[in-house]
Design a protein that fits this description.
CATH topology of the largest domain: Rossmann fold
Number of strands: 16
Shape: globular
Number of domains: 2
Oligomer: single chain
Largest sheet: 7 strands, mixed
Bound molecules: 5-S-methyl-1-O-phosphono-5-thio-D-ribulose
Amino acid sequence: MDDIRAVQWSNQALVLIDQTELPTTETYVTCSQVDDVVDAIIRLVVRGAPALGAVGGYGVAVAMLQGERENWDAARLESEITRIRDARPTAVNLAWGVDRVRPMVAGGVDAVLAEADRIAEEDEAANRELSRRGADWILANTTTRPLRILTHCNTGSLATTAWGTALGIIRELHLRGDVEEVYADETRPLLQGSRLTSWELTQDQIPHVIQSDGAAASTILRSLVDVAIIGADRIARNGDTANKIGSVSVALACHAAGIPFVVAAPSSTVDLSTASGDEIEIELRDGSEVTSIGGVQVAPAGAQGFNPAFDVTPARFISAIVTEHAVVHPSAESTVDALVHQEAQ
Ligand code: MRU
């Protein structure tokens, strides 16, 4: 399980598996200029909050190397680094990754690369640990065996530096023999579920079906699943959680059906400086992604698309938030605080 590396550093450049081409073609994009990095982030060649954290770190090294080649002054380097930081607004990990390596810029490219490597290593370790904690919590809070699990978007190796978050928990449960079937939401408009999650589940031989996003609430209310597990792009101080558009509909259905709705993320996705979901900027993408499928126009010519890429699930609809440090029911800010501290349980 899991030899996929979505984000790598090789030959003085950032190398990304091109997630826009999966599952039909496995190709790689090499980023040796800031424009390449920004373009890859915006086009979702690389996507998923924890993967974007690593891209933020390595992206600073790309900017420094380009700056050396082109004799940039310090102000130009700063503005190019900020361009990477701001390429997508909702996942806090991108800005977090850039900010984490920024103090190392004075120490040179090798110092930045060493810190970016640490981000990647820590992310994998966090994902493996949160997967164990999440699996334990789910087994303690459900009775059906094996489990039928619903997930939304892609949260596996492709969305992280390795292993995955919500999909990491599913992998862990599968290893323990506790997965009957996964319902993978297709995740319109860009189909991260049917293209990417199904690709990863297929490689791991985890039984699954792909359903349209519109089927999710009905599947839950018909008692066809026992638990829903999703990832996160930003978890606010009060536990409100931004994730892929459609996540809140899954949460509301779970609430109505009385089954657990679990959010899984490394602590790097918890943003204690954001008080609540109201403060989270939701990326608005081009409407053409909605009026077309796979690049083929399906709506009448001239029809306008509305394309928010994320939504916010209020904390009261979340049964548990899992990080590598803790599993908490987000009932108070103090409990969310526990998600980022080593000693917390
Ligand atoms: O637009 P995307 O594909 O970057 O959105 C990704 C998600 O919403 C994921 O669920 C989230 O980033 C967590 S990935 C472990």
